[in-house]
Amino acid sequence: MPYFWRFKRFPEGPLDPRQLRILVFLRSSGPHTSSEIAHALGYPVKFTRRTLQTLRRMGAVEVYLKPSRSLEDYGK
Description:
Helices cover about 50% and strands about 15% of the residues. The protein has 4 helices and 2 strands. The two termini are about 20 Å apart.
């Protein structure tokens, strides 16, 4: 099951421009995996993951597991 990151809020205080770019991306385009975010913004995956962890500690983003199948899929 992949981990998806979603925007919660813009934190107080100064942000690195790359952190702000990640937040604006998530706010405008919805939840994505760290790999998808890195690819869309042209950042290294390792950097993106570290930045997302920092933003999570700041309360700016949250992470959740998205199952590969939803409950509706089991009814078919």
